[in-house]
Specification:
Elements: E1 6-10, H1 15-31, E2 34-41, H2 60-82, E3 89-95, H3 98-108, E4 113-118, H4 123-129, H5 132-139, E5 143-148
Parallel strand pairs: 1-2, 1-4, 2-3, 4-5
Helix pairs in contact: 3-5
Length: about 150
């Protein structure tokens, strides 16, 4: 029998990710162990200015640092609101490509399982947005439990 003692649940503050968090909690309560909740902040895209337009006084690294601090507090507040005190929880905010950061963190911390939502995108939305979940499934070195959540049809 699989015993998931170290579970990673990445969230992006969407309803599907909250559903995955609920299911990850159920697993932790069943098996014991520790839940780690991860949020990945995408890097600020750098845009090159046309020659002769001068420079912009914008500190990208400082802005990214502020984003990480803000999301860390938001993550803590959100998890506190959704999880009781009966479950040991660790929080982590990373900067970079979501799928790469999720897989890297899971491997570095020797996670037993990643519980991640699917957003149910199809057609052009999936082509444009890609799928973090698919990339995690392909690259993860541990079990990946996907929680299907579908967009409403348009």
């Amino acid at each position: 029998m699989l015993a998931f003692k170290q579970i990673l649940c990445p969230i992006d503050f969407s309803q599907p990710s909250f559903r995955a968090l609920t299911d990850a909690l159920e697993l932790i309560r069943r098996f014991g162990g520790k839940l780690t909740v991860l949020h990945v902040v995408p890097p600020v895209p750098l845009v090159e200015l046309p020659p002769g337009t001068g420079t912009v006084a914008f500190d990208v690294k400082k802005y990214e640092s502020e984003l990480i601090t803000t999301y860390d507090q938001t993550l803590r507040d959100t998890v506190k609101e959704r999880i009781g005190s009966d479950v040991p929880v660790e929080y982590h905010v990373a900067l970079g490509d979501a799928a790469a950061q999720i897989v890297s963190y899971a491997e570095a911390k020797k996670m037993d399982c990643i519980v991640i939502a699917t957003h149910g995108r199809t057609g052009w939305r999936r082509f444009v947005h890609g799928s973090v979940t698919e990339a995690v499934i392909r690259k993860a070195h541990c079990a990946v439990l996907t929680i299907p959540c579908h967009d409403s049809p348009e």
